[in-house]
Amino acid sequence: MNTSLAFVGCPRCSRFFRQAMRHVLVAVIMMLSCEITAARGNYTQIQSAAQADSLQRLLAGVLPDTLRVEILNHLSRYHWRIRSNLDSAFLYADSAKRLASSVGFLRGQAQALINIGIIHNFWGKDSAAVQYYSAALPFYERLQDTAGIVKVYNALGDNFGSLQRQYAKGMKYLLMAIKLCEESHDTIAIHAPLSNIAYLYIMHGDYPKALEYFEKSLRFNIQLRDSLGIAICLANIGKMYCALHREDIAVPYYEQALPIFEHIGNQHQIALVCLALGNIRLTLGEPQQARIYFNRADHLSAKRQDNVYLTIALCLAFAKLHLYNKHFGNALDYARRAHTITLKLHNTLLDQQEALEIMSRCYDSLGQSAKAFQYYRAAMNVRDSIQNEIYIRQANDIREQYEFEKKNKEIALLSVEAELRTTELQRKRTEWWLLVVSLLFSVAIATRAVQLYREKKKVAEDLTTKNIFLEYKTQIQEVESQLAPHFLFNSLSALGGLIARNAKEEATEFLENLALTYRYVLTHKQQNLVTLEAELDFVQAYMYLFTTRFNEGLQVHIDIDRAFIHHYLPPMTLQLLVENAIKHNIASTWQPLRLVIQTERQNGAMNLVVRNNLQARTPSMGYKAMMSMSREFRRTMQHEESTNVGLHNLATRYRIHAQRLPTIEQTETEFIVTVPLLAEEEIVM
User: Fold this and answer.
1) How far is Cα of residue 378 from the mean position of the Cα atoms in its chain?
2) What is the DSSP letter of 144?
3) Do the Cβ atoms of 592 and 605 come closer than 8 Å?
4) Mean pLDDT of 12-26
5) Are strands 530-531 and 554-559 parallel, antiparallel or unpaired?
6) SS in 3 state form for 357-378?
């Protein structure tokens, strides 16, 4: 107590103490003002980088290191929020990371890593951003900071889903964030992952699902009384209803959001809402009201001049307005301006297509058919590019789903192997102890009999466990063989040939059938039996891939009685028989392979018959036969001896579920396989 009084009583120390307290007060006021300004959505009022640097120099020797780290993180955050100087934002975050690391301030170090990751996102370095986000996660886990972990999961989900277009991975992280929020009852942090999931559904075109998540986020923001969050959710819900062509429902949501944005002073959001209301009024045939909204949005955009995407939207809005009023010259000017800007940016293909369509309609109305057709064709090319991106995204989703399921299978297999090793060790220990006891105590015959009984029972349990393991391993091998890499490679090669020939419709149909094939395998591989109708739908898509590759070299005839389509058979049966026929026979224009799939009734039983003409592959074929084959077939042709493993496995699968088994018949000219079609009463459970 006396020391404190002496410290304050000393003139020099007292002056230093007052200066230090004043600097701390300035720092706290600065941070609070930044928070209030950011909450109001008006980031332009934040102090400049020069003022921040001078403040840092002023406080460098006075403030505690942890408070300096927090100030550096705040300065970095506000710089990347207004995007005024990302280099300065990075320097602040890097300084905060190094200072926090030197003093062991885990929370400050984690926040600095997240800031650096966000800055890398703005720079377009998404992979580097993921590394920084992942590096922040262990710090929050050590601190047991649920809100920090949710923040990292949300950043990773947004990065993978919105920026890298890895929707399955992004959705996984966002759902993990929501689960953590629900477990910890954190209603403050949950609205961010809810909104990000809604944005992912928008990118997928699933507007009803996106609407559902925006409404959930709105309820949480209402509970928190977060005006900015409420207004953004209202505007997004209105946007979803517009996408669902329910403009009458969308208007009240936009009109509720507008006064909230006006009260906050967020000019950018006001401009977006005015633009949306103007488009709705134009759609409803009210051009005067639309012009009022468009002019207000244009006025607000001219003040900011920092969002090219808003500029594109305004140009398209005025172009549509002038086109509606038949002012074709003005409409062309605005559409050209929008098109020019979209050519310099990424992720603006939809706006580019709309601009080209408006220009085409203007030239058509002016009687310039040639130019109208030119811009219409350009718009269709952009539309095809968008569709191709959708197909690529769907193919990536299928691949990610397959890899995810394969990884789960591998984990389950390792678990089974570990259990087997444990069981084997326990069995050996039991045998050893039984031997020791028998040698020491000379157990009586009755006791020995009991021991033998126990040993036999243990061996039977081990055999049962091994059988389960072998059956499980066989299922995995079957799935892997059904998704063999050479089949995918050949299919993609055929698809590449179609693309090279510019056969867009054929390539699109080929890709759809390839997706159907893999979707069927992923959907039905766990089922024991499927209907003949489902199997036929699959084999038609599967056969389309082969007929595209072999052209006239493969001729397929399917004759199915509709009375048989609800009977059952093991999944992938037709795929096995078709692939077996193609694998062991020549399929060329000169020697076409004829494949017949038909149903028949024999002695009251229903069967499926698959037959093909015999023309076995051989390396000693003549030149004429070789040249008549397609290049794809010549390149992959090799002489293979049939091991009948596939047909043997098929018989084993039938033996589990039915009394009747497949039959194989080979004549001088044909190879015939007959498989039973099972009614429900024939299936052995």
Assistant:
1) 30
2) T
3) no
4) 47
5) unpaired
6) HHHHHHHHHCCCHHHHHHHHHH
Dihedrals phi, psi of 493, to nearest 5 degrees:
-65, -45
Dig out the tokens for 584 from the structure: 């062991």
Mean pLDDT in residue range 163-173: 71
Torsion sign across C-alpha atoms 199, 200, 201, 204: positive
Residue 53 contacts by C-beta under 8 Å, 6 or more apart in sequence? none
Q: How far apart are CA 199 and CA 162, in angstroms?
A: 8
User: Is beta strand 593-602 parallel, antiparallel or unpaired with respect to 568-569?
Assistant: unpaired
Angstrom distance (rounded) from CA 666 to CA 602: 19
Q: Are the C-beta atoms of 268 and 307 separated by less than 8 Å?
A: yes
Torsion of CA 225, 226, 229, 233, to 10 degrees: 10
Is the pTM for the entire model greater than 0.70? no
- Segment of 55-59, 407-411, 608-612 carrying the highest mean pLDDT: 608-612
Of all residues in the chain, the percent with pLDDT exceeding 70 is 74
Residue in this structure with the two tokens 């049966």, named with its chain if needed:
573
Q: How far apart are the first and last CA of the chain?
A: 87
Q: How far apart are CA 168 and CA 428, in angstroms?
A: 46
Most confident of 442-451, 602-611, 627-636: 602-611
In sign, the C-alpha dihedral spanning 233, 235, 237, 240 is negative
